[in-house]
Structures are given as structure tokens and as C-alpha cells.
Amino acid sequence: MEKHTSYSSNWNKNSKKNTIRLFSWTFAWVITLAIATFGRLYIWEDNETISLIAILFNLVIGIGFIIANKDHLKGLDELQQKIQLEATALSLVVGVVTGITYSLLAQAKIVHPHAEISNLIILMGLTYSIGIFIGNRRYK
After folding, report:
1. Which residues contact 19 (CB under 8 A, 6 or more apart)?
2. How far apart, in whole angstroms, are the C-alpha atoms of residue 22 and residue 70?
3. How large is the angle between the packed helices 78-107 and 117-138, nearest 10 degrees?
4. Whether the predicted pLDDT of 4 surpasses 70
5. Rounded Cα distance, 26 and 84, in Å
6. Which domain holds residue 47?
7. Residues 65 and 87 grouped into a single domain
8. How far apart are CA 105 and CA 100, in angstroms?
9. How much is the pTM?
């Protein structure tokens, strides 16, 4: 029994550590994204060199974010991994289908050809959140 308690305690510590690490990388990525996006408008006024450095730095932080996300997923139990996989798959498919449909509508000149990627990201984020909610309720 002591071995099981020790394993459970160790798993909880690792899970908490992975969650904090993922939050930290997510926060850093969002901050560097904001700097790369708004810095050229309000701080360095379209300086391409500084913009490139900010974008590349955001990319490097994004790679750390991806690795932290992977580590977080690997640290989850099998049920949580399944819920995450289903929500991620749903989000990906909705994003791809919606993005391609919009592209076809733009090519046919039915909608304005200038699309904001932020709209697609918001849709995918909402779809992912709904998928997590449904998965948690389904496997409760």
C-alpha cells in the first residue's frame, strides 16, 4: 500500500510540475506573440530587422511551448490523454474543414478574400474547449 501511495504522490507532483511548466511556456509564447505583433506598430515602427528578431524569438518560444505541451500530455493518465486526443482531433478537423471551405468561398469570390487567421484560431480554441468539456462529461 505504501508503494501505491508513493507512486500516486509522485505522479501528482509530476503532473503539477508539468502543468506549471506548460502554463509558463504558454504565457511566454503569448507575451512574445504580442510583442512581435504590436511592437512593430507601437515600439519600433516597421523596422524589419527588429520585427524578424521578435518573430524568430516567438518561434523559439513556440517550440518550447510545443515540447512542454507534449510533456504535459505524456504525464496525464490514459483517460485524460484520450479526452485530450479526441478534443485535439475535433479542433484540427473543424479548423481544416472551415479553413478550406473559406478558401474555396474566397476563390469563388463569394466572400472577401482577406481572412483573419485569428478567427480560425478562436474557432479552433472554442472547439477544443467544447471537446474537453464533452469528454470530461462523457467519461465522468
Report:
1. 72
2. 9
3. 150
4. no
5. 17
6. 1-75
7. no
8. 9
9. 0.79
Q: Which three cell numbers stand for residue 122?
A: 478562436
Identify whether residues 97 and 137 lie together within a single domain. Answer: yes
Residues 62 and 120 in one domain: no
Whole-Å CA distances, 25 to 15, 57, 116: 15, 13, 25
Residue where one domain finishes, among candidates 56, 75, 94 = 75
- C-alpha cell belonging to residue 121: 484560431
Q: What is the DSSP letter of 76?
A: S
Concatenated DSSP letters for 77-122? -HHHHHHHHHHHHHHHHHHHHHHHHHHHHHHTTSS-S---HHHHHH
DSSP per-residue codes, 11-22: HHHHHHHHHHHH
Position 9 confidence tier, pLDDT thresholds 50, 70, 90 = confident
Residue whose C-alpha cell reads 524569438 in the numeric block: 57
Those residues whose C-beta lies under 8 Å from the C-beta of residue 12, and which sit 6 or more positions away, are none
pLDDT, one tens digit per residue, over 33-57 is 999 999 999 999 889 999 999 999 9
- Of 25, 48, 75, the residue at which a domain comes to its end is 75
